[in-house]
Each structure stands twice: as structure tokens, then as C-alpha cells.
Amino acid sequence: EAANADFDGYSMNPIGTGAFMMEKRDLDNETVVVRNPNYWMSDADGNQLPYLDSVNFRPIPDEGTRLDSLLSGTTQAMQTLRQGTIRDARSAKEDGADIILLEFQGNNVGGGMYNLNNPPLDDVRVRKALTQMNNQEATIEALGGTGISLPGTQWFSPDSPWYSEKVAAAWPKFDYEAGQALLKEYVDDPERSDGKAVGEKIEVELSCPPDPTLIAAVQVSEQLWTATGMVDVTLTNYDQQTHIGYALGAPPDFQGSHGVHCWRWSSDNDPSTELNRQLAPHTLEVAAAYGLDGIFTPTNFFNYFDVEVFGALVQAISTDVFEERYALYEMVMMKFATDLPVYYSGHTATLLAVEAGIEGINGWVLPDGTFGGQGWSIPQLNQAFLTN
Prior knowledge:
With about 400 residues, the chain is of the alpha+beta class. The protein has two domains: about 1-105 and about 350-385, D-Maltodextrin-Binding Protein, domain 2 (3-Layer(aba) Sandwich), CATH 3.40.190.10; about 105-350, Roll (Dipeptide-binding Protein, domain 3). Helices cover about 30% and strands about 20% of the residues. The chain contains 13 helices and eleven strands. The strands form three sheets. The chain has a six-stranded mixed sheet with strand order 4-9-5-8-6-7, with helices on both faces. The longest helix is centred in the last third of the chain and has 18 residues, at about 320-340. The chain is globular, with a radius of gyration of 23 Å. The two termini are about 45 Å apart.
């Protein structure tokens, strides 16, 4: 009702049952929330939550500046997804910084996606060749993730109940010579999908936001692909919002014009929450061709659709038997290993770094002491408190 009454203003003045209330919302500068005196929850001793009177959120886009702000005492907590920043935070702590590091590595995995609407990326030979010539270990090192990030082979990390050794074994390994041979097969094909003459180089746009470690990571791929003598790579770097919009495209079709786009996928939520919204038909025309009229998602950024994959995803939300669901999601990831709408670098390690003396930020419990879940590296503030 409140959203309908003021649709544009609702995000600035949300209504809910959370521990804090909005006091100030200055976009791209500062958001201030204050304690909700009517919050529904108390701790195990009956103390009214939350403990904190207020929290100030400040966006600091530059990774180095964000860490420096914590180390200088300008801020009291920070979050990062950048492996290089985690490495630097570890070094700072080893050098005596009085901070607490809360690291987590779950199902989120990084890499790049191929836009199948953009020849020559519509040809699986090209996608497999580029994937085989993607040196994961070198990319992870460029990201600063050596000793931090595990190489990815699927949307599930090795400690996830959904992880599949079968998929890990099936995922194409780094094999530069095999990749070159497969790419040459495409380049010499008179029916090649990009319309170029036999023997001409393919053209690929490789894009990633302008973070130094991300730029270093895509340069690894750019150098390897260019060294074949069969690929012209154009590197582009857009801010995060533009990067996402480039892949999303514009309504009503939402067909991005990107090429190879660095990206992240998955989470520790149920697999359906990520897979179903990204692997439904990417156009209404594709949906109609398979008798799925009206089923369409704008977030199928790969523009990849496989009716068998879609059927498995529908089946997986029609049962609560883990073994059945596991087999279905394993099949989906096996199709990824064959069709290659994406390639992987490493699983995304995340970090919450806080001043010593800040507690309760990495979890919450119900009044009976049961852990409240959500183990990602996301600050939980309704039970956070200061000890000094």
C-alpha cells in the first residue's frame, strides 16, 4: 500500500519490521539508520534488540581507499569481494593492524560469460577454444587470489552439498594447444557464423569494470587469446552500472550487445533462486518456439536456452527430495561443461573486516540460541555490539 502510494519515494522511506529505521538517505554519499525502538526481537537474556543506536553506511568504490579508511579509523567496518583486497587486509593484520578478518568462500563464482547472440560466440567451438585457453591459475593470481580462491568448475563450491565431482572432472581444463586447434577449425570453416572469410581472425570484445585487479585478470585472457594469431581482442572497461546495463540491454527485448563479459554467478541460497531466473527463455520468440508462451527472463545474460536444462530446473522445484534435486542440478552443470555459456576463474572469497572490539557482526541467533543462518559475508547488525 505504501509502495503504491509513493512508488518512486518508497525506496527512500521503506516500511518493514527490521532492527533499524531510515534517518538519512543521501545516494552515493551516506545512509544513516537508527535503532527501531519497536523491533520485535530480544536476545536470550530478554534485552531489547538492536544494541547499536545507529549505523552509518558510506560507499567507497575504490578498494584501496576502503581498506585504508578502516586501517586509519575513519570507518569501523568494511566489506569486499576483491581477492587482492583480502590479501592486503591479511598483510595489514600480520603487520600489526588491530582488526578482525571474517572471511567466507561460498557458492559465488567468478569468470566470464559469452553472449550467444554475438557471433562468433554463438559457435560452441569458439566458446570451448577460448575456455581451454583461459589459464585459471594465472587469472586467480592476477586477481590477488592465490591461496585464497579455489578454481571454479561449476556454480557450487567444493564444500557445498550441491557440488559435483562429475562436473568438476568434465569441465574443460587449460589446454592451449587443443584450444588453438579448435579455434583454427572455426576460422577455416567457410560457413563460420561471423561471416568473415576463411582464415580471418575472429573479433572479441572482452569487458570488465575498471578495478585494477579485474583489469589485470582480463589482460591474462587477452594476451593468451591474442597470442594465437587468430583473435583480435578489444578490451573495454565500464563502471559497474554501465557494465551491467550493457549486458542487460534495453526494454522491451533486453538483448545485451556485449561480447565476453566478466561476471559472477550463484549464491548460498537454494540453487533455484539463481538458476531459474537466469536460464529461462531469453526472448518471447524463443519461449513460443518451445511452447512456453509468455515465459521470459531479462536476466539470461548469456542468451543461452536449452529446453532440457529448463525442464530439469522446473522438475527441481517440484520435489523436495534432495537426491532427486541434486541429480537435476548436476545435469544442468554438466550441460554447462558441454555448451559453455560461461568460463570460470575462481570462487569468490569475501571479507568483512572490522575494528577490534566490534562483535556479533558475522551472525545472529534466535532467542532459543539457534543460529539464524545466512552465513555469507554480509554484516548482520541486529545483534552487533561494541566491547570498548
